[in-house]
């Protein structure tokens, strides 16, 4: 079997990128962003991208890079945040946006990985989210039908991987990354550490290697904090 491990982020994406493709990009806010792979997509020059992600990064970081270069045509997301560039491009009509409730977005991706074309949810019933979508009544309650999400490519970030692609995530980075790994034709993962085969306890594997096509060591591990909120230390805390 050929190795899943690639020498650089550029090598890991070689032959996978094309204009008009759909890309899933992991992360919640700035936690778990594929920091090393996004700049390589930018440098490739591909355009007309549809990007599925919880959000589009923050000023100067994450998917914001692809907004700045006008490589993203459409975003399927659940959170705009303080991304002023995202806001400007959407309000000007330059960027198409499909805004999803966050749980619905996660479930649409999970459904894509599980081979479930559609499902029903109460979230969004009676709002603009439900406009143009079929509804049905179950046990006296109205539900709206949502469809799966799938992609040509998923770029995700994990903490550790073994040579087979089995993955472990750390804390909040275990957000949209695991489900996205299951819902794309090709999954490329950047990791902070590659460990020898047999290192992982099977019960501790978050994403099985069958979902991972290519692995590369991260070249960027900035892990920027989008909003730092602190409180004064209590006098009683030693």
Automatic annotation (TrEMBL):
According to its UniProt record, this protein's enzyme class is: transferase
Give the superkingdom in one word.
Bacteria
Q: Recorded GO terms, molecular function?
A: succinyl-CoA:3-oxo-acid CoA-transferase activity
Quote the InterPro entries the UniProt record gives.
3-oxoacid_CoA-transf_A (IPR012792), CoA_trans_fam_I (IPR004165), NagB/RpiA_transferase-like (IPR037171)
Please provide the record's keywords in A-Z order. Transferase
* Listed EC numbers: 2.8.3.5
* Alphabetized PANTHER family for the sequence: ACETATE COA-TRANSFERASE SUBUNIT ALPHA (PTHR13707:SF60), KETOACID-COENZYME A TRANSFERASE (PTHR13707)
Stated name of the protein: 3-oxoacid CoA-transferase subunit A
Write down the species. Novosphingobium taihuense
């Amino acid at each position: 079997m050929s190795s899943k491990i690639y020498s650089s982020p550029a090598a890991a994406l070689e032959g996978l990128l094309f204009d008009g493709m759909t890309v899933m990009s992991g992360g919640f806010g700035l936690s778990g962003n594929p920091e090393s792979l996004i700049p390589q997509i930018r440098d490739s020059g591909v355009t007309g991208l549809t990007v599925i992600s919880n959000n589009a990064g923050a000023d100067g970081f994450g998917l914001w890079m692809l907004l700045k270069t006008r490589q993203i045509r459409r975003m399927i997301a659940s959170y705009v945040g303080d991304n002023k560039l995202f806001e400007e491009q959407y309000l000007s009509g330059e960027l198409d946006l499909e805004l999803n409730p966050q749980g619905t977005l996660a479930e649409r991706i999970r459904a894509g990985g599980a081979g479930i074309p559609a499902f029903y949810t109460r979230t969004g019933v009676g709002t603009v989210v439900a406009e143009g979508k079929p509804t049905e009544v179950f046990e006296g309650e109205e539900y709206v039908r949502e469809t799966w999400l799938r992609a040509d490519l998923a770029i995700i970030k994990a903490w550790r991987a073994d040579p087979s692609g089995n993955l472990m995530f750390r804390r909040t980075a275990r957000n949209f990354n695991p489900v996205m790994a299951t819902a794309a034709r090709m999954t490329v993962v950047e990791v902070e550490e590659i460990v020898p085969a047999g290192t992982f306890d099977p019960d501790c594997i978050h994403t099985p290697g069958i979902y991972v096509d290519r692995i590369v060591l991260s070249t960027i591990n900035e892990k920027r904090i989008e909003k730092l909120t602190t409180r004064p230390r209590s006098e009683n805390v030693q």
